[in-house]
């Protein structure tokens, strides 16, 4: 406890509070609320029942009205705390409501019906996590299909990216040939050709190759990332050429040099690229939206956007699916954040 | 490809074994290739897959985009389309007054241009300010700095769809924002049904989602500034504000320029979060250029790929101009830097 107090009251060089200290802490605490608050609110909301989601003002924790099974009634009845005419309060179950009058019975003695004005009753509530929100989409929305499609696209695209980009990086860092600089410049120039500029002709090419409504049509155009080639090449340049020469002396083939010597030594850079690639491909939206028009091929991102754009949004399902979609990225964030931040700071590329 | 999954992580020999096996099988034919073509041929072999994919999926579309923009009709494949010359461009620019989108033949295009221009100006300015302030604060002598850095970085990894949905949920009628305002005694408001608030929301949400990335680049720049410069300045009795303008800002300039270029380029192309958050609405108040291209080319009832291609080329031209402008600025900054 004293540690926390010392931490909170730490000052610049032991001097008194400077106005910049106040600004700093206000900014940081505000940032904490603004950055995490919305996501936490979403996760909390995803455990609420549809009735609780429609409520205003909303409750912070998920509550539902307690129900009770009463003899003589088929369905469980809602429990209310009602103020009776004589001023006493009692916990009663509501049988039906007519206008502003609620007909209630005592759960222990269901024979007698008591009439109570609806303004004089408040629901008895208990905390309850609506886990249906998570379990139902698996049968309801082809959710498993979307999940599988997303996983397939992410894993396949990342593996191909690693192989294809590392091969190119190897050629561009360990061989002297005419047009090497030209090839490197060409690759970097593709950074300047974003999807939004070429999506019309790209769509026609992908269709001509028969990849429209095909997950490979989502995967293939994304795998030759200029960022990946750049990161890997910069890393391979630091590997001494003598290693390659020595291996050639020992009659190793060029292919063996690539995958037995260079690739293992490039492992840290490959790991960074793999993390980036997983996040990119998992999050891709516009291109899958264009290429995939059949429901059973949607990735999670496309499925979510389509269902959330419907006229009657089923928010309790959407929220739960959003949380599931966040999970891999949050895991990456928690465990691999260090790699990503150093990767970005080092190359300035995302 | 999926049979030997996760070759990237070190899950031990069990996972590596099939990969080694596969690579070993490939060795014999590749040795033969090497004998036939020499080492130079192998270089080409290694470069080939990447260049092939670039060629087919980036360069080829880039060039045929120009051809597309000069054709009309609804046919998808280029040979089936009719040549219209500069017709699509003429249609995009057919306006009585460029300041009034309503007077144009393609009024949605000009609405999108106008919206995007406002969005870029406001979003880029605010984004740079917010990221710079955050980077300066994170660069101070803070306890638990890596934690605070993570706080601001966290939304960067979220998918744009998730970002859009998180905020759509917050800005709902029964959302968190209205809940907070209700606590302060205000009436609830349906923010995304209001033209101005929806526009402001797209700016705020895109800053929320991406500021961590730019903060990180600026923070790296700040940490590269030698500390003794500040010590010397303090010794000379320089005021902190003067030290900021004279030391911090000039030395941060290279990183700041990179950030400005990246923010600008991304802002011009804004699409994903906004599409999920507002869908371009209410009306056309948050319709931006990429969504116009997407809808004209793919989603509209009357698809017009030629018109979409022409619009995308205009957007590409803007991006090239912005990049060159920044590169030019960066160079003159370097030349004039030593005073």
UniProtKB/TrEMBL annotation, chain A:
CDD domains membership: TM_PBP2
For membrane topology, the record states: Multi-pass membrane protein
Domain ABC transmembrane type-1 spans what residues?
Answer: 147-336
User: What keywords appear on the UniProt entry?
Assistant: Cell membrane, Membrane, Transmembrane, Transmembrane helix, Transport
Tell me where in or outside the cell this protein is found.
Cell membrane
Q: Which Gene3D superfamilies match?
A: MetI-like
The record lists the membrane-crossing segments as 21-43, 146-172, 184-203, 215-236, 257-280, 315-336
- Taking the first listed entry, what is the main subcellular location of this protein, grouped into a coarse class? membrane
InterPro entries in UniProt: MetI-like, MetI-like_sf
In which family does this protein belong, per the annotation?
Belongs to the binding-protein-dependent transport system permease family.
Descriptive protein name: Sn-glycerol-3-phosphate transport system permease protein UgpE
Q: What is the lineage of its organism?
A: Bacteria, Pseudomonadati, Pseudomonadota, Alphaproteobacteria, Hyphomicrobiales
UniProtKB/TrEMBL annotation, chain B:
Q: Pfam families under this entry?
A: BPD_transp_1 (PF00528)
Name this polypeptide is given: Sugar ABC transporter permease
User: Main localization of the protein?
Assistant: membrane
The record's subcellular location field reads: Cell membrane
User: Entry's Gene3D superfamilies?
Assistant: MetI-like
Keywords for the protein's UniProt record, in alphabetical order: Cell membrane, Membrane, Transmembrane, Transmembrane helix, Transport
Every ABC transmembrane type-1 domain range: 113-326
Q: List residues traversing the bilayer.
A: 12-33, 45-68, 117-138, 150-170, 197-222, 243-265, 307-329
Coiled coil stretches, renumbered: none
For membrane topology, the record states: Multi-pass membrane protein
Alphabetized InterPro entries for the sequence: ABC_transporter_permease (IPR051393), MetI-like (IPR000515), MetI-like_sf (IPR035906)
KW Membrane (keyword) present = yes
Family per record: Belongs to the binding-protein-dependent transport system permease family.
Q: What is the lineage of its organism?
A: Bacteria, Pseudomonadati, Pseudomonadota, Alphaproteobacteria, Hyphomicrobiales
